[in-house]
Amino acid sequence: MSLEDYLETAGPYLDYVADLDPAGIAFSAGVQQYKFEANWKFQVENTIDIYHVAFTHKSWLDILSDKAGKRIPFVRNMTQNEEWRTLAFPNGHAVHEYRSIDPADQPEEIDGGHDVGIGELLPFNMVIFPNLGFVGAQLRIITPIAVDRTRVELYPMVLPSDPAGSEKALRDHEAFYGPAGFGSADDMEVAFERVTQGLEATATPQDWVLIARGAKREEPREDGVRIGRSTDELPHRSFYGRWRELIRAGADAPDGMVQP
Ligand SMILES: [Fe+2]
Questions:
Q1: From the DSSP assignment, how many helices (H) and strands (E) are in the chain?
Q2: How far is CA 46 from each of CA 12, 106, 184, 198, rounded to the nearest angstrom?
Q3: Minimal CA–CA distance to 31: which of 132, 138, 120?
Q4: What's the gap in Å between 25 CA and the centre of ligand 1?
């Protein structure tokens, strides 16, 4: 399968990333790496799950609100802003969008980012199945080491034509994702490692983690893309649906291997 066929309708989002700067994106800021004791798919979920921000990163939202002198409207946008939405593409790719990337839909002036202070060069979070992510100002690669151990590499994107904007995005990125930042520590302890411990508890044989939020209100588009609301678990259904297809195909394949 060609890359174009694999990306299919998710392709324009990668084009958007590539077109952030006419001179091309630089990765001159280096790479930030971390490991955690949990399955790699938690980090995939986390890349395209917005609602965890409201509670996992509540202390960060409180700090941003204190600095702004008013409550930042993240939760209100998440629950009420119809521009914030989720999209599921064929082959398991998924996006959470803060505003449309369609050139015909662009406002005359873009009023800031999405107010979460992580270096918002991109108006969306995206996962290209299975393990390539884009969030804020970074490209993210998620690598499984073992079933319960994961390595993640974050590459901040630098725009050569906008040194001042890139500098601000990098400082914001550091504040949230850096070694002394507020965000990654929350995610690793609460969203990955404590959730792993919680999943080891079994009360009944029917204990399943449901990712059904918004399943009944998914809106299929003519091109096969499915649209959901901001807090819907549509991206997760997209990812795990493709994952299940591949696992089942692998079980049937003579050598247990299939190509994504
Ligand atoms: Fe997070």
A1: 10, 9
A2: 22, 27, 11, 17
A3: 138
A4: 24
Q: How many other C-beta atoms lie within 10 A of the C-beta of residue 88?
A: 27
Say if CB 241 and CB 226 are below 8 A apart. Answer: no
- Give residue 40 CA to ligand 1 midpoint distance, Å: 14
Take residue 200 and report the two structure tokens written for it.
């080891």
Whether residue 257 is predicted with pLDDT greater than 60 in this model: the reply is yes
| Residue 192 CA to ligand 1 centre (angstroms) | 10
Report the pLDDT value the prediction gives residue 108, as an integer from 0 to 100. 66
Greatest Cα-to-Cα distance within the chain, rounded to the nearest angstrom: 62
Answer yes or no: are the C-beta atoms of 233 and 213 closer than 8 Å.
Answer: yes
Which residues have their alpha-adjacent CB atom under 5 A from ion ligand 1?
187
Structure confidence by residue, pLDDT tens digits, 67-117: 989 988 889 999 999 999 999 999 999 999 999 998 877 766 666 567 778
